[in-house]
Amino acid sequence: MTYHNKNLNIPNALTVLRMILIIPFVIFYVNKQYIPAVVVLIISGITDALDGFVARHFNQFTELGKMLDPLSDKLTQGSVALCLAIQYPILLPFFLVFIIKEVGMVIAALVLIKKRKKPCGSKWYGKIATILFYISFVTIVAMRIWNIDNMTLTVVLLSITAFFMIYALIRYFVIFLSILRSDDPENHLDINEVMDKQITSDRKD
Q: Quick check: is 3 in a domain?
């Protein structure tokens, strides 16, 4: 029977595509080609929504996907936040909030992996923060394309996004502590065991 690696699925492919799209986005934005930059970011946002939908609808969840999805979100948002902060120094506090949140979550994930615990997957509040991030950026760039200078709206949009980022960080931190202290086998991470289960499942298919 032919072995099929379940990590090679549509949701994971969309997640990888989202990472690749960071390159053309940065190139377009740095060269002040804002419309192509927005288009790339919209495509990125669509893949972010689609990978979760496809994974749920076709039951294509994998441990690799659970790790790659938040990583792709962090890389995309980090690239966008950096571009904005460089162009608008007044937004540096927002960028700082983003860095604190993402670095904190990466450290937490590494601690759990070291402790042989499964890192938490994306939650609804994290997704809302991501959606608001995309909306804020597209709005800000659209205003620049149409020569609309409204710093108040920019600050309001990013403040709301920053609020949800902080809220998500707090909620994720609570989950982190819960997993760290838990003895539940469901939270145990054993790469060899995961691979064995996946191979067994694939052979059954």
A: no
| Number of structural domains the chain divides into | 1
User: What residues contact 53, with CB distance under 8 A and at least 6 apart?
Assistant: none
Domain range for 81: 10-204
CB-based burial of residue 95 (10 Å sphere; 0-12 exposed, 13-18 middle, 19+ buried)?
buried
Both tokens of residue 205?
């298919």
User: Hey, how many other C-beta atoms are within 10 angstroms of the C-beta on 189?
Assistant: 16
pLDDT at 137: 77
Distances in Å between the alpha carbon of 36 and those of 20, 33, 58?
15, 6, 32
Contact between residue 188 and residue 112 where contact means Cβ atoms under 8 Å apart: no
Q: In 21-123, which ranges are continuous DSSP H helix?
A: 22-30, 34-57, 63-87, 92-114
Give buried/exposed letters for 49-80 (b at 16+ CB in 10 A, else e).
ebbbebbeeeebebbbbbbbbbbbbbebbbbb
Query: Within a 13 Å sphere around the CA of 167, how many CA atoms are in the beta-carbon half?
Result: 14
1 located within any domain: no
Reported pTM: 0.67
Q: Name the DSSP letter for residue 120.
A: P
In a domain, 76, yes or no: yes
Distance CA 165, CA 157 (A): 12
For the stretch 106-126, pLDDT in tens is 888 888 888 888 777 778 888
Q: What is the pLDDT of residue 193?
A: 47
